[in-house]
User: Fold this.
Amino acid sequence: MLDRKHAVQVRVWQDKDTADEIAAAFEQLRQDVLAPLRQRLYAHRYPWLLALIAGAMRRYDALRAEAGALNHNDLLLRTRDMLRDNPTVRLALQKQFTHLLVDEFQDTDPLQAEILMYLVSEEAVSADWSAMRIKPGALFVVGDPRQSIYRFRRADITIYNRMRRAIEHSGGVVRTLSSSFRSVSSICTWVNGAFNGPVFGRESTDAQPAAAALHAVHSDAGALCGVYEIPVPLHGPKHDAENLRINEADIIADWIAMACSAPMKISGHDHEQETRALLHEDILVLVREHADILPLAIALEKRQVPVLASGGHALAAHPEVRHLLNALRILLDPENPVPVIAFLRGPFCGADDRALLSYKRAGGLFAFNARALPGMDPRINEGMQFIKDTVRLVRSNPPGTVVASMIERLALHAAASTGMAGWLQAASVQTLVEQVQQYSTQGASIPDIIQHLEQLFAGSRGPGVPADTSMDGVRIMTLHSAKGLEAPVVILASGRGVKAPGTDMVIDRNAATPRGMLRLRKTGTFRSDVIAQPLDWPEHAALELEFLRAEQLRLAYVASTRARSALILTLPEVVGRGRSSPWSMFDEAMLQALPDPASSKPPGAQSTAPGDPAAEDAAPSDPAAVERAIADRHAALRAETYLRQRPSALKSDVPASAPGGDGGDGRAFGSAMHRLLEEAALGEIEDAHSLASSLAKREGLPSDAADDLLSLLQQVRGHELWKRMRSAERLFVELPFAHPITENGISGVMHGVMDVVFHDGEGWIICDYKTDAEGTEEERALLYRPQITAYCEAWQMMTGEPARGLLWFLRSGIVME
Assistant:
């Protein structure tokens, strides 16, 4: 607390003068004593913590070496080392590749530049790659330093400057290309005025290149041609980030819908005609943050405007993916009631608090393998069964299979696709599946995958959903992902604004050997405190911030040069707290008013925000009509649109005296016995009594039930079918399955878990354990035959091979087909 400036609470002092005097004295103490002392404490900790980090890095290197794995940096480093340290290899590659052409060089990182120099330089190797001499004619580089925007991945403007000096030092020639074959004359004129002088000076600096005027090849044409602004007035009382995004998205979507339906005319310089009608696919909307994509996609879809999103967006923006992550957390600790209750209350089960309370009062447990309670809310029973099946699935399947099974059983693709921007939501689910499968094949565990997904959600960057190039529509992309692309009309959205750049890492790449330093933090839930940094950190951080601010300006330059015919900027009245408009450097006087596609309706007139009089006037005034609309909506939501069926629910018509299946403690005993048999089938159990006791306790069985479980296990182990199963060529235990079905015109999925599937030379056998003892074996066989038949049909459908189905009544030892 003593290292922060505090406001004076005058009311606790006798008079204001005394309060001000004490406050001034404390501030002097803070600046003269406490701040320097704090800096020395940080500097004292710094080498110790760096040594700790270095040890962790060495351990990580050793683990990769043991696993025979290489990451992206390993590939670059090993290639660099091979070329630097092996003259024979270097000379052989130079003879094979005599001329190299590198495009977009401003995106090259230091290792890539060093590798490049070893391929084109004279024989002598220097510790400073930029000091080596390039062979005449060996290298041709194309790059624009004004488009250097990837400092966060080490491709900063310093590397471009060093390569340029190396080329000049080797006798090479630098040519300036100034013709723009993309933007029309009015856009080039605006870009020159907005950036040459205010951003790029007459002379280059380490952080910023010199100005270079663009000369347009194409003249202005069409009604929509030039640089425009879209005012974004405030709507409603709330100015939080979400409302700012939605408000701007509505205004942009309104204008796009009207402009394409009019339609407006744009330049046709990329076609044979001089002008042509504006199409949806002509428009590219660029945003600063991934979270800005979804509100725009929803706003456009509401207006029936086709839309494509690409270049990556945060998975966290999609609720279905977040709900799945919550379900995955159950697998970390299946006996932890918190994630179990969250899953049951969530959208997958939809159990309300009253149902959960009734279940708890009836003795129900919120844990894996909790005893099933007859008569409970089906949402809870089905949810608990899903948890049991999934936890069992983890024991014998890789994480990718587990997650794919969860997504299929929860019908997550279908659920995601039914909402607004459903195609984008469903694509995010598919992206998640592919991410999990990728990490699963690399040996990641369920905890590893959950941690990876949580890191994706915590950050602003996530895996991208590629645009479907077979479709036509308005494209939405982030600025970084749009580099190198173009569109006839580009709209630069503001979202909730941008934060001022900050840094916890400094790297000086001007020297022959780059020097880096860190500011280390301890991060909590609501705050992040510095714990260590070098003594001279402020001076170096100030230099790094200069580079970061310069790159933010270049990012605006890249965004402004994507348009062919029209560049449109949104200018919001308010942005998020602690943020500024990403286009605040532009002079509004240089922007034109956006042409109105429909003169009677200005941009944004069709959208109403909460609290607007127009929105209130549009609301239905008849309470009965509102109630009918709500009832119709509820009926539509309750209607079955996706069928989910389990073989265990299939029963034959049997006499009234026949058993109804396991119930009460019988069901709990059967669940525990199935789990015990699963362990026994997979191998010898080290402590069978402890396992049986634990299973009995989980299922809420009496304490002596463990002895009954072990007695029945011993009986089963002596059975001929068990011996046959254990010696089989191929054996699957607790095997999950799912396949599509259609019933009464409704599509869905049949899913379940087969107790045992094995192949012993005579064909495939599917065995289903039964522990109930009510009724005769003939009656029980009649009851369960549809279930085992469904298993056999599913196996035939999935594998193309037939299977025999066996019902094994464990207590009597009778096996029936």
User: Anything to note?
Assistant: DSSP finds 24 helices and 25 strands in the chain. The longest helix spans residues 16-67. The domain at 226-313+468-614 is CATH 3.40.50.300 (Rossmann fold).
